[in-house]
Design a protein that fits this description.
6 helices; globular
Length: 211
Amino acid sequence: MINHQTVQLILALRGAGISDHEVLSAIETTARDLFVTPEFIEQAWEDRALPISCGQTISQPVVVGQMTEALCLTGREKVLEIGTGSGYQCAILSKLSRRVYTIERYRTLLEEAKRRFAALKLKNIVPRLGDGSMGWPEQDSFDRIIMTAAAEEVPEALLAQLRNTGLLVAPIGPSGRQRLMVFRRDGDEFHKTVLGKVRFVPLLRGIARTL
């Protein structure tokens, strides 16, 4: 059921320039309060990033909207997400693509996200504990790749796993100077577009030994 807070959030996203009806519908029908910790339930529908487990964050909805819209999804794509986090971005992607492969380095976050996916009956998500900077080489290639953590440069492994004409959306740059960027593959070349300034947690290599 759509409540007043949801309506206000969607209006804020429209005001920020997000216009894709399918993207807005996916955000509208994905209950963000299911993806935050109990102490932040009251703030779940606000357009702001919030802390989650393992020192990570659930992204600001307007940024989720911008990144999702930039992927230009039609419902047929095979998508790779680097950084499952709370699972919120992944749940939205699952409504807009054929299948989502998502990698998380923190076991606690991954297990929490998997429980949420099961509760929401999202059956086209394939989650995995792993090093996101290495991508998912066993799956060969992806139509779309999204990074939900920032790197100074896109890992070469991810660029190699992007199909020709595919899109990769990622926050790029050092802390304080990150830019949300879109990379479109054209053979061996990657054409870049800058969408704006953002602030994300850093992309860390390897699997976390704790948490």
